[in-house]
Specification:
9 helices, single chain, alpha+beta, four-stranded antiparallel β-sheet, NADH Oxidase
């Protein structure tokens, strides 16, 4: 394969994986991934990213604390995102894409439209990073502007692509944003650090039904406009 074919295959082959093998990831491999991702571009070379890599006891501590609040409706109601990740009102075509993503996922898992308990149980798995041996929490200094989020997106993509190239799988997750205060307390984060998202990282469980989900992509004609 040519270089571009290899790169294309890694990028297009990456999928969000929601079930992992209990196989640890060596710190040296994680550091390789972070080193590669550190070459992502950023305005004025500000490099606004900060990664908190959770494994072992730290991973268990954070997931246990967050799930305890998730399970308590009164406590859960006290927690809110610091910023809007999703729109307050969905419009087309985004609404249809979101709906299909949800029902395709639930369909694979055999969860019906009225199975609220099963939906909640699946949502709860977000807060254990879907069983991945590595949970990554990403933060950014609050002083940075909106443009730094675009830089950050390139950094996150670089991490996921570098992981994929090493036989690892990932799932980017906004779920932890709601419980940013708990994450901050458990990790001892400075108030200047804003929690942006998480990523589950590990070796995919090849036998898990949920990992069969393949999200469709829009045709180029839906989002590309050529001006000549």
């Amino acid at each position: 394969m040519t270089t571009h074919e290899v790169v294309d295959a890694v990028i297009s082959g990456r999928r969000s994986i929601r079930a992992y093998l209990p196989k640890p990831v060596e710190r040296s491999v994680l550091d390789e991934i972070f080193e590669v991702a550190s070459h992502a571009p950023s305005g004025a070379n500000a490099q606004p990213w900060k990664v908190h890599a959770l494994t072992g006891d730290s991973l268990q501590r954070v997931t246990t604390a967050v799930q305890a609040v998730f399970d308590d409706p009164e406590e859960r109601a006290k927690h809110h995102e610091e910023f809007d990740y999703y729109p307050s009102e969905w419009i087309e075509p985004f609404k249809a894409r979101r709906r299909r993503n949800g029902w395709d996922l639930y369909g694979l898992l055999g969860i019906g439209r009225e199975d609220k308990a099963e939906m909640k149980a699946h949502a709860r798995r977000n807060y254990e990073f879907f069983g991945a041996p590595v949970g990554l929490i990403f933060t950014m200094d609050r002083i940075m502007g909106l443009g730094s989020l675009m830089d950050y997106g390139m950094f996150l993509q670089s991490i996921m692509v570098a992981a994929e190239a090493r036989g690892l799988s990932t799932c980017p997750m906004a779920a932890f944003n709601v419980f940013h205060a708990i994450v901050r307390d458990e990790l001892g984060l400075d108030d200047s650090e804003q929690v942006l998202c998480g990523i589950a990282l590990g070796y995919a469980d090849p036998d898990a039904v949920v990992n069969q989900l393949v999200n469709p992509r829009a045709e180029l004609s839906e989002f590309v406009v050529h001006h000549e």
